Every structure is written in structure tokens, then in C-alpha cells.
Amino acid sequence: MTPGARLQAAIEVLDQAFAAPLPPDAILDAYFRRRRYAGAGDRRAVRARVFAVLRRRARLTWHVARANPRAQQSTSSYTRLLALADLIVGDGLAADEAANLFGSSPHAPEALSVDEHRAAVALVGRPLDDPAMPDGVRLEYPQWLDKSLRTAFGGDLARDMAALNAPAPLDLRVNALKTTREDAQAALAAEKIAAVPTPLAPSGLRVEGHPRVQNSRAFKQGLIEVQDEGSQLVAALADARPGTTTIDYCAGAGGKTLALAAAMGEGGRIRGRLIACDSSAERLERMNERLARAGAENVERLVVADDAIAPPAGLANAADRVLIDAPCSGSGAWRRDPLAKWRLDAARLAELVRLQQDILRAAAALVRPGGRLIYATCSVLPEENETQVASFLEHNRDFRALPVAGVWEETLGGQAPTGNQFLRLTPARHGTDGFFVAVLERGPSPR
After folding, report:
1. Which backbone phi and psi does 422 adopt, to 5 degrees?
2. Are 303 and 275 in contact (CB under 8 A)?
């Protein structure tokens, strides 16, 4: 592909990304499946341009609005202007250099219009980060979340937001049902995939670059799963052990179910009872292939309503561990999907908070006295995390929060990397996605 054709491909992908509620990587994969002629270099270049525009979207939009006030975000012209601004403001190209990429070949974007060329000239010399920008623009977050993010990060807001807007590493979890971390590392190395142990998760590997590990023999044989280190730590803190009854209440695609299965393994098999619950039968069905590949076929699957009033038959007060990987804003994973922050609004956040409350109430009924309820989100927002847990404990006096420092020492050994009460992980401080974990233990019912 020519440079102009790569730019046109990026614009087409961006048009789709702005119109469809799908992660950019999914759109890119679908785009290139229909264009087998594109080489690896083409794919890398297009992906880099797409994510550059998405990670700089608020700042580029701010510059475009000043260079061309008539630009409308709902038009393809707007996407062209964002790409143009990224070339000039983001990459530092001269106006003519950027303009020459438009109309340069049959597969390049159409040549710039007169208005677009004027905008190109007006963009030259502008700094990507302008002192006149509001914090929400400069730090790339919706202004309506300003109070929540400042509560979460305090004086580290700029550093944490920069990390949430940076590329994420590729982490793998080694499947202890089938192999060891050292052997999995060696198997990957034999396929020319370099990986090093993750600093916090004992079964994690961090891969250099972004190779297609799903095509590797190690992946196809079930030795590894793609899973962020923070997500691995959530599952580890659940402390699922062989012989226990453990429930993954919001199992979704099954990533944490697989990690729990490995933790409950002895001799290559799950020992105890592991139940994956979800409100979607379709999601549970899609888990089959992953479970089979991992050697965890004896995981039970159960469809439950998030706001269930009565526990499923036989499960009331029955579980040693119940993990809630709650539906949430996903703000802790913004670095993987930079568009997600702009799709979130106050109404959706309020809906998620209510859903989390319903799920906590339903899942609590499954925990036996002395058992644990592990509440986790991939969010950095206090209303989904500390505030949610405080409300639950106020209305469920038979539960108490266990200091995460003690749970960490008990399950992982050593000192927890965050505060004493709850686990709060962020990309800036820990190199993981943003996660929150509270471990709640059920005691005797209050009299």
C-alpha cells in the first residue's frame, strides 16, 4: 500500500469506529480480513495512525475547531480533518507535505478542498498540548467526569490519565492445569515470541511487541491465555482452592473462570466445584472452546439474572468464594479502547451503578458464613468502587471488608502494591489496566 492508501484506510477505519460501538481492534481485524493484500507493514502503519488519532482525539478536535470552525463531527469531512491535524500537529508535517498525501494516488483520500487546505495552513506550528486547553481536553477525558477522576487520582491526575491514554502491553496467563511459567516461556521462545515474567502476577508473562499469539502452538495447546496482569491478580485474590465451591458470578467470556480453574487444579484437573454464571446463555456457550482448550471442561455453567431475588436451587449460602467481575464503565481499560471514554455518559454510569448494586445483593446470598465475596471492577471511578462497597456493607452487616494487604500476603505472598484496605491498580503506578478489588467476608448473620 502507498502512504496515501494507508492514510485512506485509516480514515475508513476511523469512520467506522466513530459510527459503531465496537473496539477499534475489532474493526481493524474485520477491515483487513477483507483486504488480504495488505502486508504486515501496512497493517502496522494503519493501526498506528488509527490509534494515534483516537488517543489524541480531544486535542485534535480542539485544534480543528479553531482551524475550521465549520467542521462537523458527524461528517466524513471531520474524520479527514482529524487525520490531517494528526499529520500536522501530531507528526509535525508541513502543510504541503500533509496535503500531498491526499489525492496522491487512486487509492489515496481525495485531494484537500480549499477549506481543508486553509485548515492545514492554520494548523502548522500548533503544539499538540496547548496551554489554553481545558484539563479535559489536554488530558483526554470527558469533562463531566472531572470530579470523579480528581477524587480517584488527586494530584496524580495528569500522570494517571497519560498512562490510561498510552498503549497497553500484551500479557499472558500461563495455564497451571497444563504447564509451568518457565515451560510456557520456553515454548513461546521456540516460536520466536519473547516473553518475560510479569512483576506481580505469579503466572503471568509479558510479551515483547504485539505478535499474534493466538496463532502460536502454545496458545492452541491451551498453555497460555491472553489476560492483563491486573485481571490475573483479581482472580488470584479470590483465593479459589482445590476442594472448594467457587462461583464466577459475572463470567462473561470466561477469562477469570479459566484463572480460577487453574487455581483449583490438582494433577491437571479441577478439584472441587467451579460454577460460571452469567445473564447471557450465549456468552456461556461461547466459553466452551476456551474451557476445552484449557482442559477445564468440568466447569459448570449457569444462567442467572443479575437482579435475581432468590439464589439458584442448591446454591444459597453454599459457596466458599463468589467472584463478581462486575459490569462497569471499563474506565480502567481506556488505553485498550480510547473511544470507550467518549461513549460513556452520566445516564449509562448511573445505570451501571444500579446494576452493580443488584448484582452484589444477588451474589451475596450465595456466600456461606465464613466465605468470601470478591467484588472487582475494571474501573477507576469511585462511584463504582469504594462508594459501591461502602453502600453494600451498610446494608449487609453480616459482611466485613478484609484488608487487602492481608489477603495479598495470604494468597500471593509479600507486600501488596497498593493501600491496606482495597486493591487499586492503575497503568501509571503498576503497569496494569485499572482495577479495583474488595474482599468481603461473611460472618454469622446479625441478631
Report:
1. -125, 160
2. no
pLDDT attached to residue 241: 94
Ranges of the chain whose pLDDT falls below 50: 73-74, 447
Q: Are 292 and 317 a contacting pair, CB within 8 Å?
A: no
Residue 219 grid coordinates:
496458545
What the block records as the C-alpha cell of 229 is: 496482569
Residue 140, burial from CB neighbour count under 10 angstroms (0-12, 13-18, 19+) = buried
Structure confidence by residue, pLDDT tens digits, 390-427: 999 999 999 999 999 999 999 999 889 987 899 999 99
DSSP 86: I
pLDDT tens by residue, 107-137: 899 999 988 999 999 999 999 999 999 999 9
Q: What pLDDT score was predicted for residue 360?
A: 96
Q: How far apart are CA 196 and CA 141, in angstroms?
A: 32
pLDDT at residue 445, rounded to an integer: 61
Residue 244: all three cell numbers together: 472448594
Tell me the domains of the chain and their CATH numbers.
3-133 (1.10.940), 170-226 (3.30.70.1170), 234-442 (3.40.50.150)
Q: Which residues are catalytic?
A: 378
Annotate 264-315 with DSSP letters as a single string.
TEETTEE-EEEEEEES-HHHHHHTHHHHHHHT-TT-EEEE--TT-SSPPTT-
Cell of 328: 462497569
List beta partners, residue 442. Answer: 399
pLDDT value at position 447?
A: 43
**269-270/265-266 β-pairing:** antiparallel
Q: How far apart are CA 435 and CA 418, in angstroms?
A: 11
Q: Which three cell numbers stand for residue 232?
A: 490475573
Predicted pLDDT of residue 300: 93
Strand-pair partners of 195: 207
Dist. CA 305–CA 325, nearest whole Å: 15
State the DSSP code for 132: T
Mean of the per-residue pLDDT values for the chain?
93
Specify the DSSP element, H or E, that contains 171: strand 170-174
C-alpha cell at 243: 476442594
pTM (2 decimals)?
A: 0.93
Within a 13 Å sphere around the CA of 199, how many CA atoms are in the beta-carbon half? Answer: 7
- Residues constituting the chain: 447
Q: Which residues on neighbouring strands pair with residue 425, listed in sequence order? A: 435
272 has which bridge partners?
Answer: 244
297-331 CB burial, b ≥16 within 10 A, e <16 = eebebeebebebeebbeebeebbbbbbbbbbbbbb
Task: Please state, in angstroms and rounded to a whole number, the distance separating the CA atoms of residues 362 and 311.
Answer: 7
